[in-house]
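ok so i was messing around last nite and threw this chain in just to see what happens. nothing serious, just curious
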Amino acid sequence: MSSARDEPVSRDAGEDAGGISGDGPVTALQAEIRDALTGLAARFDRELAREHERAAHREAVIDRLHEENQRLRRGELQATLEPLRTALYRLHDLARGGAQRWAAPRPPTPADAASLLAAVADEVADALARTGVERFTVEPGEPYDATRHRPVAVEPVTDPARAGTVVAVRTDGFEHDGRVVRKAEVSVGKAVPESPVPTGMTVAEAAAKRSVKATAKSPADSLPESVKSGTAGPGATEPLRETGAERDDERGPDGRPPAGLRP
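result:
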């Protein structure tokens, strides 16, 4: 009797278990997941391919821009060099023409050489001007300006008004956009006390002679103080003294010094 009562219960449990453990719903879910993953993978592949295409396009654009930039830079460089080439053409023609004139049977005079060198200097200044560098000149008598002048010599002057001014100009200066890029080399005057100038000498020569005399030393000035004062010890260097015998040797048969040694 107990087994009969338990049998319906076992049959119902088996039916419930059979409904839960069936393969139909699980297989459908797996298929959906598989299809979804397959679609995502295909979509990822398409997006990756598009990204590769965009990257390749960017690289092509960058390469083209770089090439154009290099071409523009080469063009700018050539445009910058063109004025220099033009100036060099003229310099070449000047030098070649000067060489031909000097090789002629009747060569030009030194004055013609000076004009040729002046023309060469003007051509160089013109070439520099095409690059933005302007030449400026300095005239003697202008006040010395440390921002535009480079002193290469100091010349003595007796006129106080010329002290601190440009006495002579060695080279021109150059500036770019108002900024000095190469100072002009000048000689600057320095006042010296006015004194009589010997006949046949210029003021500068007289001033130079006075400077030499002021800096010159006699042989006795180079001796030690102990020697000059007579307190030198044994072994110290003493000045040479002329003896009577040496003086007699310098005299002639008549007892008088030779003509070259007479006062």
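not much to say yet. The chain is about 55% helix and 15% strand.
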